[in-house]
């Protein structure tokens, strides 16, 4: 599919993340209150103000949940209408007054997260972490090639790009210590992930095909992780406080419709999947991803480059598996993909892998080294799909590490 | 504290679960719509209709979340006002018309669950399960005496007492099989738990004392668990679909105020707790609990008797620990205690323990045996605290097992 042209000039550049082909959904505030917006070139469209053809109730609250709940027909109708409004000169006069410069807009959480589930679907990541923790022979757990392994995360931890992230306190136990101590995490890390947003609810088991239909769109996702808290707490019931500090998402929901041209297949299976997990067609996307780290006041270094298509399980497979037990899914549920590491050393999506557990510190362009994150570091995830003369972007997914809060007197 | 007497005669019986000392909060429907109610003797008070002295906004939706969000002063004022209205004859004429017989009322979810966290704070349970899975020497994980181990559960799984529970489908792998199959769980189980409801939000770390102040009340909780799904899926990230079928809670929220006289201390510590987890006073409650199992169409057998005071960690300690990483807590968060097993074989709070992994099936009063739950079985949890001439009850927490749904063609 070629670039669709818009009367918004900046949307026709090959460099913009937001051509007419994209039309991602967000929430913005330009000083006049939080509203629902659609990115187009260098602007945000104040969508409730234009003749969108839908019930105004869908735009009453500054969040996209009501539009999601209205279902796939409404998703399609809105996209078609916005495409017309932003391409046909006949509408320019009515629509242009409702464009706000992105540089004047602060971006807020685009939707209300109902529940958050995080998966572990990157094979390179699972093998890397498994090799470090259990040795190369036992790297992949026995269930890994059969189950899209996941755990429930904490929805209250999800924040929008730009929100500072305070280094967590927690229980830590040094390998040679007998007892744990309470203090700031010393091994605070990022995880490069992709997030799928459930737009249609379900109550009972759904197929991979039905699950794909339920997905409204995607965001970039950084699953901040305290490796030292995790190492001490995670047996036998999994990660808990190690993952509850923050989960940063990119500000724009890129719709499934915008990503259609970039569908591709998950890797060949080493072990046949059970029938319920088999995919009726390509269910993953070719999306280039990068991670950049900037020490406080200094230039950033791109520390990893990866691609969403490395994942072994698609979001549709994960969502299908999530419903097998009868678990009800709701509008606004967020599914993290798991860390997206590629096969090469510089395509690893976490510092745990990039520094091989801290044993091989990374050297940044500034000459500094990093095993894990330091206070003042700014982490940025970026992603885009490349079309014929255009690209589909998500906006930066960024967060700056603040020092841990002081330990309260009652905790000393 | 002795029995407080009410002009509602049935509330003055030593046998009622709902004397004036209790005043638990629920949601009911007598055919005229869902409303907020307060149990008193054999009745439910239609609380929005009486002169409760608070803003009507707090009673606009059929759920107790708005009252919780109004904060502890409002919680105290409402309890004081209801005590006056239901004890002083002067109010009888105005209040009595708004009493609905409990036998005419269907009880609904008393509150909207924001997020659900389940803990693992029963030492007898942890030792029993650990012995079965890892041997007696490694029964307790090394972190268990230091951390209130928990994992995030699925809020959408929480249902009110009386909701049927469909046996889950899932991935199962027999110990001698090479590969998993997809089918109905054969080892479906209950877990006897207590649930604490967060009434006040937090954003940052809170002390045990502050955490206790944040708790609005308690319910009984059955954490239905598919042991065979769990055994295959839970490494390395913890239980997921095994716990997502349903989580049943009792219909009445018993307030922290009603339970004050029954506070008692958690057990002596084998290893000193870190300062942040130390309790400033008694934080657990003396509440007798029982589990009854009735095969379809037959009499029930009480299969276990336990007490909440067996727990090693209190809900206040669990909530404090939950906030250490900076995790925000919200109004309506639900914390499951973990399975409440006592030291004796007949005080074990799950069939996994009662039948010792299925090796020692239980014989019911009907002569039938059980290793795990069978279709048609009705499980009921009951709990009460015993005061001076009165008891504080929660109402039955019950669920009947329905057969698993048929496996869809696309999953065969």
UniProtKB/TrEMBL annotation, chains A, B:
Enzyme Commission (EC) number: 3.7.1.2
Chain residues that bind substrate: 120, 134, 230, 234, 339
Active site: 125 (proton acceptor)
Residues annotated as domain Fumarylacetoacetase-like C-terminal: 117-399
Annotated pathway: Amino-acid degradation; L-phenylalanine degradation; acetoacetate and fumarate from L-phenylalanine: step 6/6
GO molecular function: fumarylacetoacetase activity; metal ion binding
Cofactor (UniProt): Mg(2+); Ca(2+)
Example GO biological process: L-tyrosine catabolic process
Binding of Mg(2+), residues: 223, 243, 247
Domain Fumarylacetoacetase N-terminal: residue ranges: 21-110
Keywords: Calcium, Hydrolase, Magnesium, Metal-binding, Phenylalanine catabolism, Tyrosine catabolism
Positions bound to Ca(2+): 118, 191, 193, 223
PANTHER family registered for this protein in UniProt: FUMARYLACETOACETASE (PTHR43069:SF2)
Protein name, UniProt field: fumarylacetoacetase
């Amino acid at each position: 599919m070629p670039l669709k042209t818009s009367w918004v000039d900046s949307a026709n550049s090959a460099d913009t993340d937001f051509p007419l082909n994209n039309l991602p959904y967000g929430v913005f505030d330009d000083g006049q209150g939080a509203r629902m917006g659609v990115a187009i070139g260098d602007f945000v469209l104040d969508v409730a103000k234009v003749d969108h053809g839908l019930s105004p109730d869908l735009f009453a609250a500054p969040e996209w949940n009501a539009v999601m709940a209205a279902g796939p027909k409404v998703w399609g109708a809105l996209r078609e209408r916005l495409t017309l409004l932003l391409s046909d000169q006949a509408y320019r006069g009515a629509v242009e007054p409702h464009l706000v410069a992105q540089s004047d807009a602060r971006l807020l959480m685009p939707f209300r997260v109902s529940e958050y589930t995080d998966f572990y679907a990157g094979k390179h990541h699972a093998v890397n972490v498994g090799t470090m923790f259990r040795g190369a022979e036992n790297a992949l757990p026995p269930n890994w090639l059969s189950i899209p392994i996941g755990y429930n995360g904490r929805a209250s931890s999800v924040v929008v790009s730009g929100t500072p992230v305070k280094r967590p306190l927690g229980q830590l136990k040094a390998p040679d210590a007998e007892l744990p101590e309470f203090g700031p995490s010393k091994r605070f890390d990022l995880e490069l992930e992709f997030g799928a947003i459930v737009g249609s609810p379900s109550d009972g088991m759904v197929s991979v095909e039905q699950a794909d239909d339920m997905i409204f769109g995607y965001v970039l996702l950084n699953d901040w992780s305290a490796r030292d808290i995790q190492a001490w707490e995670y047996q036998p019931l999994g990660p808990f406080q190690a993952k509850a500090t923050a989960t940063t998402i990119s500000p724009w929901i890129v719709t499934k419709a915008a990503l259609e041209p970039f569908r591709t297949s998950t890797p060949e299976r080493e072990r046949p999947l059970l029938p319920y997990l088999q995919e009726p067609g390509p269910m993953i996307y070719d999306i280039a991803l990068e991670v950049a780290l900037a020490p406080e006041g200094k230039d950033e270094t791109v520390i990893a480059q990866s691609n969403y298509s490395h994942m072994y399980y698609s979001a549709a497979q994960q969502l299908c598996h999530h419903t097998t037990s009868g678990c009800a899914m709701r509008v606004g549920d967020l599914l993290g993909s798991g860390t997206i590491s590629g096969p090469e050393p510089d395509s690893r999506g976490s510092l745990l892998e990039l520094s091989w557990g801290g044993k091989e510190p990374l050297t940044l362009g500034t000459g500094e080294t990093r095993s894990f994150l330091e206070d003042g570091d700014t982490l940025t995830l970026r992603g885009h799909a490349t079309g014929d003369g255009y690209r589909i972007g998500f906006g930066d997914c960024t967060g700056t590490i603040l020092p841990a809060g002081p330990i309260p007197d009652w905790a000393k």
